[in-house]
Amino acid sequence: MVAERRVAFVGSIFIRGGRTLTGTVEAAGAKNSALKLLAAALLAPGRSRIANVPDISDVATMIEVVRGLGAVVDSDADSVSVDATRLSSAEAPYEVVSRMRASIAVLGPLVARLGRARVAMPGGCNIGSRKVDMHISGLESLGVEFAFEHGYIEATAPPGGLVGAHIMLEFPSVGATENLLMASVLASGTTVIDNAAREPEIVDLAEFLAAMGARVTGAGTSTIEVEGVEALAPAEHRVVGDRVECGTYLVAGALTGGPVTVRGVSPSHLEMVLLKLEQAGCEVRATDDAITVSRNGPLRATDVQTLPYPGFPTDMQPQFMVLMTLADGDSVITENVFENRFMFADELVRMGADIRIEGHHALVKGTPGLSGAPVRSTDLRAGAALVLAGLVADGRTEVGEVHHILRGYEGFVEKLASLGADIESTAAPEC
Ligand code: UD1
């Protein structure tokens, strides 16, 4: 059943390091796509069906958001249906937005369909301040008027509806590109989004919107062009595979030797990660939808800098840092997308890593081994990275605050155990 409950997990993940991971796991549908597709379903009256939706707590939160707006949501084995025939509210309240910033994705669809939206202003989070100014200024270009009151963003469309415009993003923000794309499909005339984000999840969203009757070209490039239509119809869509989840298991293979194979993700979505794994001394083999990583020799120090797609993903930076803690030599990891995304490095240092942070650079000196310790996950990817560190650490590692990990990884412990990890979890839904 796809995340039906309202999930709040308590507990820890325990790992005893030293096992070689081998075998095959299937990647789930991409979290970062599924959340936006659930929001996009609000654009059309009727029942859309989205398949390959991951069973993770962020999806449960987004279901809560769209239900709160009046949509009827049902789920079965791996799909979620959203019937957005009647929307009774245009408000995403603080309580959910503060739990999951991606709730801001309903802003564009609501203002396009209902002419108004009231969405709590997302606050800071563990990986930085994460502003929404580009979402706002882009929507203003489409004619939306904003008021900011009592911690809420109040958006109002012009009386005749949104009007297409030329929008140049200052930075290829994923969330801003998606919100503008979802708003502009119902705007009159042509919208051009320049310096758009090019992530595979943007392409996935554009494909869903096209299936709903939207006219979008250029998704996956820096210039997206949208010809607005009067109305959209519900559609069916299958969520693209999760490239970050896939990359996380590939790093598990790289750390322990593998071979580890991950199915369900196009290798073209992970090109830079695969290149960096090869530079780090791994062997990478790829077919159309399976990627295998193994390693016989030592890990080589490899510099990495995070960049918008197709650059190295910021969501893979913590996992790669763990790999570099065990490499021969020194590497520099540069974080260009989010401030504050090195918080977890202190936890790795507690496990024996040699890492010095200087601004947005992490200077990592390879060490011969890590040592198991109680650590705390500070955010989703950092938590996953600490579990990876536990796989190769000497002795037992306890990763606490596991709810961060369960926001984005379906069956994380089970999948790692199926590859041979000595791992267990005391995580349980909070009653
Ligand atoms: C999405 C992903 C996240 C990923 C990130 C970058 C989801 C749910 N999350 O986040 O996993 O790490 O893309 O690939 O899809 N910014 C502004 N003003 C804005 C918007 C963004 O300054 O209006 C800044 C942010 O603070 C950040 C950078 O731009 O420093 C990138 O943010 P963005 O690409 O928007 O990431 P998200 O959509 O939040």
Q: In a nutshell, what does this entry contain?
A:
This protein is α/β, with parallel strands linked by helices.
Number of strands: 28
The portion of residues forming beta strands comes to 15-25%
Q: What is the mean predicted local confidence, pLDDT?
A: 94
Uncertain runs are none
Distinct bound molecules: uridine-diphosphate-N-acetylglucosamine
Coarse structural class? alpha/beta
Shape: elongated
Radius of gyration, in Å, reads: 21 Å
Q: What share of residues is helical? A: 25-40%
Number of helices: 14
Oligomer: single chain
Largest sheet: 4 strands, mixed
Q: State the end-to-end distance.
A: 18 Å
Q: What strand line-up does the widest sheet have?
A: 24-26-2-27
Describe the 3D structure.
There is one protein chain. The chain is an alpha/beta fold and 431 residues long. It contains 14 helices and 28 strands. The protein is elongated, with a radius of gyration of 21 Å. The two termini are 18 Å apart. Bound molecules: uridine-diphosphate-N-acetylglucosamine. The site of uridine-diphosphate-N-acetylglucosamine has 20 residues, from helix 1, helix 5 and helix 6.
Which features would summarize this protein structure in a list?
431 residues; alpha/beta; four-stranded mixed beta sheet; 28 strands; 29% helix; binds uridine-diphosphate-N-acetylglucosamine
Tell me the layout of helices and strands.
Elements lengths: L8 E2 L2 E4 L6 E4 L4 H10 L6 E5 L5 H12 L3 E4 L4 E4 L7 E2 L1 H4 L9 H7 L2 E5 L12 H9 L3 E5 L2 E5 L9 E3 L5 H11 L5 E5 L5 H12 L3 E3 L5 E5 L8 E3 L4 H14 L3 E4 L7 H9 L3 E4 L3 E5 L9 E2 L11 H9 L4 E5 L10 H6 L3 E5 L2 E5 L4 E2 L2 E3 L3 H13 E2 L1 E5 L2 H4 L5 H7 L3 E4 L2 E2 L2
Parallel strand pairs: 3-16, 4-15, 7-8, 11-12, 19-20, 23-25, 24-26
Antiparallel strand pairs: 1-28, 2-26, 2-27, 4-6, 5-6, 8-10, 9-10, 12-14, 13-14, 16-18, 17-18, 20-22, 21-22
Helix pairs in contact: 1-2, 1-7, 4-6, 5-6, 6-7, 8-12, 10-12
Bound molecules: uridine-diphosphate-N-acetylglucosamine.
